[in-house]
């Protein structure tokens, strides 16, 4: 459907996949703020974009708040759970392949308020093949005028270069950015390269 919306052949994205490639899914528990020692840091996820794939499909398994997305004005908007639906995040890979026409979604996760119990979610990350560099898609010229209306992404430059040519680093940087305290503890040099230090918090 994404390919067809861009007036490309329906199999345009097949080149980025291979049998038995590394897609990922996980079950995530976010404890309420009264269920952990907040002096040791937050248990949510800091502002980030999904870096290593094309799309993320997220099932919010209960009705607790926490997931927020950032709009073009920089405001945080609650992605309130809706029964029977999935949240679809555009990842940096798709932003890169479409030259910014489809900007990646900046999002974060806050812990539920006290007394509400834990929040559960199940993300599925639609990844790409790891065995060859990528090139951006050749999109119809009619879409060029839309790109000027897209807010410039902070994924430009370094992260897009990694996605196209060093996807393994893109995956690692994604983990460090999402969990800056742990990332800085174990990968301080790499964390500093993307602006994360010992004072960075979720």
From TrEMBL:
Residues 21-128 form the Fe2OG dioxygenase domain. Signal peptide: none annotated. Pfam families: 2OG-FeII_Oxy (PF03171). The keyword Flavoprotein does not apply. InterPro entries: IPNS-like_FE2OG_OXY, IPNS-like_sf, Iron_ascorbate_oxido_reductase, Oxoglu/Fe-dep_dioxygenase_dom. One of its GO terms (molecular function) is oxidoreductase activity. SUPFAM superfamilies: Clavaminate synthase-like. Keywords: Iron, Metal-binding, Oxidoreductase. PROSITE patterns: FE2OG_OXY. Belongs to the iron/ascorbate-dependent oxidoreductase family. This is Fe2OG dioxygenase domain-containing protein.
